[in-house]
Amino acid sequence: MKELEKFILEIGKGFAFIERQKRMIVDGEDYYLDLLFYHRKLKRLVAIELKIGKFQAKHKGQMELYLKWLNKNERQEGENSPVGLILCAETSKEQVELLEMHKDGIMVAEYLTELPSKNELEKKLHKAYIEAKEVLEKRKLL
Fold first, then answer.
1. Whole-prediction pTM value?
2. Are 15 and 62 in a shared domain?
């Protein structure tokens, strides 16, 4: 998690680190958000959860709870609602699409455990570009 924190701060322009393992108490139970940042330009908290395995639908509920708690207890005047990022070893595109997570300010991304070859990386980037373009085109049609 420490490496992820450093990575976001290095490449993520405008991010400010707030807390690691942010403790939240709900109904007397402790919950811990992996990483909490603030983005200066977006003027909002950014909650990040790191998952070891494949994305599961239950991760959405967990992140929703965190975002609602942050909105109620941490959001300051003049700030926008918090957003969440769930980083998984493998995404489940159909589940993410069906859950319409973007409507709740939650994004899911896949992380790599080792760097692929240049050729593989180019293919993945091209595929991600095509998918993003298709999503944007679908939104225009709606």
1. 0.72
2. yes
